[in-house]
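Lest this sound abstract, we let one protein speak, letters for residues, whole numbers for local backbone shapes, and leave readers to judge:
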Amino acid sequence: MGGGITRAPAFFFSLLAIRSMYLLFTRKKSLDIFLTAIFSALTILFHPEAAIHTLAAALVFFIVFGRNKSGFLRSIAVIAYTMIFTSPWWLTIITRHGFKPFLTAGSTGFYNLSSYISFFTFNLTNESGVSSIAVLGLLGLFIYLSQKKLLFPFWLMATFLIEPRSAPLHISTPLTVMAATTLISITRNFDKRCKDIRGPNGEISPFQSFISKSLLILLLIQWNISAISKAVEVISESTIKQADLDAIAWVKANTDEDSSFLILTGLRPFRDPVSEWFPALSQRSSIATVQGYEWKSDINFDEVLLNSNALQKCLVGVTYFL
């Protein structure tokens, strides 16, 4: 899908920015101020939505590690440098359109009761088959809370609260860390009967017994099957096909530039590669494509989604009639 082209590098630089934030507050080197600002700026420029979740992580890291004069001053320096590095982008938008595009886009994060209720189902990992990572992560959440280690639980909850729309992607980091903690805790209980197998600090090394090794192998097989099946699903359902590209190329070559098109595929927004790619590739207007309306202040984005969904349902009736 179109958004993935910028979302993927944004997620990558967000992870680098979060790592630099941790170092910013723990080892306190001047280089970390510059690196955090650079990675944060790249996150913003590739995909502003990712910046929201990076900010959530930054706030949690500041509360846990940086609640002192040094942490405050270093945070201000990072903010200042980030604003400077990204100023060509946001100054251009503000000069031409004011603050409305930012305010409008900021309100399209699915801030509604159903989105927040979905958090309690903990169906956040989109796994194929048993959601083992989600289950392990949920148990890890309570392990960390019971030990009063609040960094990862706060990071996960802050990420979901600040913007539910793309939270499942950005909670993957704290969630997988908590899942790994749970898995190690479980296997250590299996391994307690193994004697004379201890780590450098006297702790029992994980995955030493036949049972724990079998569990790890089973999970690795399941995770790989899940990853492969999801990749196949994306390729088959969310990737634009060559026939569609040929049709779009024909439209671009044989229609007037001011033409408008109604794309009916029967697919929902955010799952419709033809509708999402058509405007960019054809240089023509697509009436029912929802991408881009996030920035328009005179249009309610939730209504755009509802109308687009309703319109695609018309295809069922058309097909039945034909």
User: Anything to note?
Assistant: The chain has a mean pLDDT of 89. The beta strands are 260-261, 285-286. DSSP finds 14 helices and two strands in the chain. The radius of gyration is 24 Å.
